[in-house]
């Protein structure tokens, strides 16, 4: 069974609050509208596997290159529209 909790946050200010609210075990996180990847980066560094969804292909390319250059590996980047996620039907 999959447990789903939706939390809307001000990314930069609320990253520590969000991580504290998550269970203390690692798991899979969906980051919709990842942008520069601040949330994904912090979650990945805490041991979570992160699936990011971003509409801008250029932003995905830049963020992926940045993450690869810094050795952040447990993040999957997906180009998609948040209103039509490819894996939820």
From TrEMBL:
<keyword id="KW-0808">Transferase</keyword>
<protein>
    <submittedName>
        <fullName>Class I SAM-dependent methyltransferase</fullName>
    </submittedName>
</protein>
<dbReference type="GO" id="GO:0008168">
    <property type="term" value="F:methyltransferase activity"/>
</dbReference>
<dbReference type="InterPro" id="IPR029063">
    <property type="entry name" value="SAM-dependent_MTases_sf"/>
</dbReference>
<feature type="domain" description="Methyltransferase">
    <location>
        <begin position="29"/>
        <end position="87"/>
    </location>
</feature>
<dbReference type="Pfam" id="PF13649">
    <property type="entry name" value="Methyltransf_25"/>
</dbReference>
<dbReference type="InterPro" id="IPR041698">
    <property type="entry name" value="Methyltransf_25"/>
</dbReference>
<dbReference type="GO" id="GO:0032259">
    <property type="term" value="P:methylation"/>
</dbReference>
<keyword id="KW-0489">Methyltransferase</keyword>
């Amino acid at each position: 069974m999959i447990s789903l909790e939706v939390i809307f946050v001000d990314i930069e200010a609320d990253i520590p609050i969000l991580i504290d609210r998550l269970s203390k075990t690692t798991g899979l996180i969906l980051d919709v509208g990842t942008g520069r990847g601040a949330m994904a980066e912090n979650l990945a560094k805490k041991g979570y596997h992160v699936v990011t969804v971003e509409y801008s292909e250029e932003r995905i390319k830049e963020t992926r290159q940045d993450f690869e250059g810094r050795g952040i590996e447990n993040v999957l980047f997906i180009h998609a529209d948040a209103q039509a996620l490819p894996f939820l039907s």
